């Protein structure tokens, strides 16, 4: 019970819990209404998030101003932290936990939990529940970052206001029992604020200063805050830019698009038209590791025996989908 019964050859990989009883694990069909936000809904701003996100950006601006004084090693640490925390999101909360596109050894899951915590993008259970809700109810009122509400809302505005009631109502029908049963994720959720403080900010500050000999201030500002804000923007761009701009070779009836620029920054996560068609594909794109840093990382882990059961859409299924719904690009 609670497990997906099958992997469809394309389309969705989640099933809704019966609306009348979350305990009743029978599955119901998946209505997918499209359309703009209901005219009866009023946006309610959440000021502490607006101030928090605003302050982070002011500190980042200050980091850019003082950045010429930073050592080369500090920039290398910035890049290392960007990649590692990015993989905690792409290989971790996205491909492994949300989409269950591959299976992994507990040691790999532990490392990815640590990297994911250092990424500070909400704990995995919340991140994945929102992301499953996004896939299931894409671009409707029930989509947490519905791109019909404009670039800014899809990018980061959704984190600055209360969720549409439909997000919560329909989101509660999404099965997350697999995530709640994971002991690493339960631990991460329980101690999230303190773990984030330690792993996202204190650890990079101390480590960088120790390794490179740079000041604590530069170490906090560049591999800490600036790296955090950079990874946030590139992640947010998947919801904004990659839902607005790019080709639709797999499905021209949906907005998610193939956006190469986003893909480059997001370690292979910008092939978003493909991803919305085949969300269970571990490569989140038609292509293999050459064009996709996260796929490369997962493949290396598989070669080491830490990862197995990678799901991939077959060329025949992709071709059929392209000719059925693609834009012929
Ligand atoms: C951040 C996350 O930035 C970014 C995620 C982006 C995802 C992109 C994915 C793209 C693909 C992957 C690409 C990766 C690329 C990476 C590249 C890296 C180099 N279903 O939430 P509340 C319930 S985080 C079911 O408070 P409000 C909830 O359980 C940044 N239920 O809603 C609760 O119930 P209860 C740091 C749901 O009050 C109740 O509703 N974080 C769902 O409207 C209230 O929940 C932040 O900045 C659901 N989907 O507040 C802000 N949703 O009471 C963090 C909610 O029973 N968030 N519920 O427990 C918040 O402060 C708030 O959520 C809020 C909304 C203010 C936004
Ligand atoms: Zn999307
Ligand atoms: Zn996804």
UniProtKB/TrEMBL annotation:
Q: Where are the transmembrane segments?
A: 45-65, 77-97, 191-211
Task: List, alphabetically, the InterPro entries matched.
Answer: Acyl-CoA_DS, FADS-1_CS
- Main location (coarse class): membrane
The subcellular localization recorded is: Membrane
Q: Which GO molecular function terms does the record list? A: iron ion binding; stearoyl-CoA 9-desaturase activity
Output the Gene Ontology cellular-component terms.
endoplasmic reticulum membrane
Any single GO BP term = unsaturated fatty acid biosynthetic process
What is the top-level taxon of the source organism? Answer: Eukaryota
Q: Which UniProt keywords apply?
A: Fatty acid biosynthesis, Fatty acid metabolism, Iron, Lipid biosynthesis, Lipid metabolism, Membrane, Metal-binding, Oxidoreductase, Transmembrane, Transmembrane helix
| Swiss-Prot/TrEMBL cofactor(s) | Fe(2+)
Membrane topology for this entry? Multi-pass membrane protein
Domain text: The histidine box domains are involved in binding the catalytic metal ions.
Family statement drawn from the similarity comment of this UniProt entry:
Belongs to the fatty acid desaturase type 1 family.
The name this protein carries in UniProt is: Stearoyl-CoA desaturase 5-like
């Amino acid at each position: 019970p609670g497990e997906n019964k099958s992997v469809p050859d394309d389309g969705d990989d989640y099933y809704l819990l019966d609306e009348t009883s979350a305990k009743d694990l029978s599955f119901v069909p998946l209505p997918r209404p499209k359309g703009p936000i209901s005219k009866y809904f009023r946006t309610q701003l959440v000021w502490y998030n607006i101030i928090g996100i605003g302050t982070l950006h002011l500190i980042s601006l200050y980091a850019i101003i003082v950045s010429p004084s930073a050592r080369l090693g500090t920039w290398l640490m910035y890049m290392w932290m960007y990649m590692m925390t990015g993989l905690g999101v792409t290989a971790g909360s996205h491909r492994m936990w949300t989409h269950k596109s591959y299976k992994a050894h507990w040691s790999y899951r532990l490392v990815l939990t640590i990297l994911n915590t250092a990424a500070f993008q909400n704990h995995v259970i919340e991140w994945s529940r929102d992301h499953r809700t996004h896939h299931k109810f894409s671009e409707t009122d029930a989509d947490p970052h519905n791109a019909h509400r404009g670039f800014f809302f899809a990018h980061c505005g959704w984190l600055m206001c209360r969720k549409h009631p439909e997000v919560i109502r329909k989101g509660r029908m999404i099965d997350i029992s697999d995530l709640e049963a994971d002991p690493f994720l339960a631990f991460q959720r329980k101690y999230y604020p303190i773990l984030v403080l330690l792993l996202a900010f204190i650890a990079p500050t101390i480590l960088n200063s120790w390794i490179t000999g740079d000041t604590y201030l530069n170490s906090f500002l560049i591999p800490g805050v600036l790296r955090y804000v950079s990874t946030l923007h590139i992640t947010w761009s998947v919801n904004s830019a990659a839902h607005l701009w790019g080709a639709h070779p797999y499905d021209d009836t949906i907005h998610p698009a193939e956006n190469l620029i986003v893909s480059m920054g997001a370690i292979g996560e910008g092939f978003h038209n493909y991803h919305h068609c085949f969300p269970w594909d571990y490569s989140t794109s038609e292509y293999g590791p050459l064009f996709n840093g996260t796929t490369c990382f997962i493949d290396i882990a598989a070669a080491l025996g830490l990862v197995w059961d990678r799901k991939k859409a077959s060329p025949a299924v992709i071709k059929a989908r392209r000719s059925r719904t693609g834009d012929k690009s």
